[in-house]
Amino acid sequence: MIRVVLPAHLRTLARVDSEVTLEVEGPVTQRSVLDALEARYPMLQGTLRDHVTKKRRPFVRFFACEEDLSHESPDAPLPAAVASGAEPFLVVGAIAGG
What we know:
Number of helices: 3
Radius of gyration: 13 Å
CATH topology: Ubiquitin-like (UB roll)
Helix content: 10-25%
Order of helices and strands: EHEHEEHE
Strand order of the largest sheet: 2-1-5-3-4
């Protein structure tokens, strides 16, 4: 069981109050987690990744085990603690400013 923590505005869009849990088939990667998340919550399609290219949106970041995984390959395995459900996969909205 994979735990995913979404930012407040995406929790509202998905109509969930707290973190979500997902079953992921095969290797646990960013791609497989996001595919499972979008399959379960279709209203999130296009909010985290581009509809066509499936690339991460510019102001969305992914974290796990206190590491920024945003620029890692989407097919790289996530840490074992995330795959086991001990630690959550975090989706964070980034802020730009100057």
